[in-house]
Amino acid sequence: QVEPVESGGDSVQAGGSLKLSCRFGPNHELCEMEWYRQVPGKEREYVARIFNTGVPQYSDAVKGRFIVSRDNAKNTLYLQMNNLKIDDTAVYYCRAGDNCSPRPWGRGTQVTVSS
């Protein structure tokens, strides 16, 4: 199985923007793809999902601020994060949705938002 590789994490000030990328293996065109995040001591939290049709879904915490997209030709998933808040600080992970298997986790990418 090919683990996804997340990138694009950085340290930014509140109100700023970042765009995360996730390279995943081949043959994921029909998979739902998802973003999660985790802070130390807490469970991994769902952030966003994009269906193979391109339709997105978001958690209430990020709706209206984050945009999920995908480029199947590049085997890449994106997460555009705008108006970042301190509470968005976390390690961000991508993963295939439960309509595909296997669904390995990547190593994640750190996003730190400061005041």
- Secondary structure tally, helices: 0
Question: Mean of residue pLDDT?
Answer: 95
Low-pLDDT segments, ≥5 res = none
Roughly how many Å apart are the termini? 40 Å
The tally of beta strands, per DSSP, is 10
Task: Kindly estimate the percentage of residues that lie in beta strands according to DSSP.
Answer: over 45%
Instruction: Summarize the amount of helix as a percent range.
Output: under 10%
Q: What is the C-alpha radius of gyration, as a whole number of Å?
A: 13 Å
Basic shape:
globular
Largest sheet: 6 strands, mixed
Keywords:
6-stranded mixed β-sheet; mainly beta; 4-stranded antiparallel β-sheet
Please sum up the structure shown.
The protein has no helices and ten strands.
